[in-house]
Amino acid sequence: MTAQTEVATAATTPTRWQDRTGRILMAITAAATLVPFVEGVTRLGDVSEDLILTEYWRTCAYIVFAGMWALLAVAPRKQRGMWELLMFHKIAVTIQAAFILDVPHAVRTLIADGFVSLTTIAAYVLCRGWYTWRRDALGPNDNR
Question: In the 3-class helix/strand/coil scheme, how is the chain assigned residue by residue?
Answer without folding.
Answer: CCHHHHHHHHHHCCCHHHHHHHHHHHHHHHHHHHHHHHHHHHHHHHCCCCCHHHHHHHHHHHHHHHHHHHHHHHCCCCCCCHHHHHHHHHHHHHHHHHHCCCCCCHHHHHHHHHHHHHHHHHHHHHHCHHHHHCCCCCCCCCCC
